[in-house]
Amino acid sequence: MIKTTLRRYSHKVGLNFWHMEWCTKYRYNMMNKLKNKNLVTACILKVAKKHKIKVHIISVMPDHIHMLVSLPKNLTDSQALSILKGGSSYLIFRNNENFALRYPRRNFWSAGSCSVTVGYNDLESMTNYIENQEQHHEVAFT
Fold this sequence. Notes:
By secondary structure, the chain is of the alpha+beta class.
């Protein structure tokens, strides 16, 4: 269950939830092996923690990522996506040099992405959507 208590700032009180999604470059199925899925997950979580991005749910599919996050108040969604994609890409290639055989220029993620705010009333349905991505795409990791 996601913690939904209001955060207090100097002049306001509120919540912010973002659904973020992005793909591997050329939509290659780079995370279809469990080892690669775990590496990508760990890299994204490490970068998020470093930049105080709270990851509530992460779902790594063979060719794309879905996340439900809360951002610090000084960070926009586009800045957060840039940080998450760039930082995780750096760590992924640093920890698995074989990925450079597929991506010699070391651009792991595609240029595009999607980020949408999630309202308090839609939080449960978005949580279910992200958590059930494996069934939605009929994916079995090897």
